[in-house]
TrEMBL record:
Organism ancestry: Bacteria, Pseudomonadati, Bacteroidota, Cytophagia, Cytophagales
Organism encoding this protein: Adhaeribacter terreus
Name of one Pfam family that matches: HATPase_c
Keyword NADP: no
Catalyzed reactions per annotation: ATP + protein L-histidine = ADP + protein N-phospho-L-histidine
Function: Involved in the transmission of sensory signals from the chemoreceptors to the flagellar motors. CheA is autophosphorylated; it can transfer its phosphate group to either CheB or CheY.
Name of the protein this chain belongs to: Chemotaxis protein CheA
PANTHER family, sorted: CHEMOTAXIS PROTEIN CHEA, SENSOR HISTIDINE KINASE CHEA
Keyword Nuclease belongs to the record: no
The enzyme's E.C. designation: 2.7.13.3
Modified residue annotations for Phosphohistidine: H48
Coiled coil: none
Annotated GO MF terms: protein histidine kinase activity
Ranges of residues in domain CheW-like: 401-543
Amino acid sequence: MKSREQEYREIFVAEALEYYDALSRHISELEKSPKDEKLLAEIFRLLHNLKANAKAIGFINISDLSHKLETAFGLIRNKELNFSDEVVTVLFDGVDMLGELITNLDNPNYKEATNEVLLRNLDLIVETPDISTLEVVKVQRDYNAKNLSLSELIYIQIKKLDHMMNLVGELIIDRDRILSLSKELGSSDLASVSSHLYRITEELQFSVMDARLVNVGTLFNKFPRIVRDIAVAEKKQIHLEISGQDIQIDRNILQIITDSLLHLMRNAITHGIEGPDERLSKGKEAEGNVWLSAQNDRDMVNIKLRDDGKGINLDDMKRAIVQRGFLTSDVVNDLRDTEILSYIFEPGFSLAKEITEFSGRGVGLDVVKNAIDSIGGRLRVESEIGIGTTFTLHLPTSIAVKGALLFEVAGGFFAIPLMHTDSVVALHNHQLHEVGDMLVAEIMNETISVLYLDELLNAPEGQMRLGDKRVLKGNEQNIIIVTYNNRKLGLIVDKLLRQQDIVIKPLNKPVDNIDIYGGVTLLGTGKVCLVLDVPAITRYFISKR
């Protein structure tokens, strides 16, 4: 398996070779049209980028040579140096030297040529633009011993990868169908073919998914400037620490969460971190701290944004929940801290006391929550008064294919994405208690509300008996504990099946308007399996409390 350093090196070489080819072509064109400003600007841009990229990865010789050529073309742009035949020769030699350095980076037998005359000529051009002082040198090249080579890396449009991923999804559905048929028919030949198909499809799936991966650093590295601008506007001192930039994630997921992460950063600086005077009065450093990090967690990526600000005051949260009519005061007082904090993501909820340039303009954290939900992720908030606040984004590495838990309810097949699945337990009926019109159970030292899925899916609206144990089937209940927005909910199902990767397809009209369904998939048996929308079920349950 390649190291990150080797991958970066290969990407640099591929890009640098493209720059080299473009430079050679543009200089030839410029020789015919020496006053073409667009050509000069493009050559200058290519050399500038090559210089910066080479310096960043540690290839100082390439960076230095690019810098000398960049300076020379800068003089040409500024009309301080004529693009004469003698100058063209020196510049072509310089570009050829770049090509040699780039193509021989991985050649252990290559001895870097000093070509002292070339470097001296470049220095003369840059320092004293007088072509009469140039030393004439003929570089002998045998273009028949010279080999042309193409880059081993290519750039692919995202929409092409998206299309490939959709085709892989269709293939996975058919693969599972063939596997099921091979078991039904008992054919050893078909079983052998289906087994091989399974391996090939799985490898193809991971290959396409791998091609869509990008480093989160492509997003993270934009934040130092953003933080600086917000801090200046808010008259605050902020230190940003970034880690985990080399963690990889699906490019589409990173695109979707971009605005969300920006909103959370603004929120942390404007609302979370105190001003310098207030921090000093609390015994803190005047400079506030923000940590932005990413790390792998099995088949997920966790992105954390943490600040050492004032934290979220739970008493203020309780008052706001009651004042905005979400819950009554007696119900609020019975909530756990995590449940209280979850209301920060409700539409229209805000503790902001004033409008600033970067926050308080009616765009709440519910927008962030909806974006994370749309890709099957989870958003969690933890806060300690006076210590700070942490937002954690639990994100899938891929959108198209998701791990799911399959089960049966009333003869129908259903699935819940593993992203929202906390655990699975089996409880006897006497372990379920009726509290008001709700069922609750003590599960792993937590009191969790329990919902009977058969009632939710099949009982007419207004006739659901959520807390009635008489509707239960059998003496023992299979319960899937799901989690959403810092809240846990137990879902009673008839029969647990298995975990399986599924391809979720959108529902057709008119059932696409039913909130509790997030899509549909096909099982290997050809049966239709509805995918439940855990956020929608949780919101529905809360509205019934």
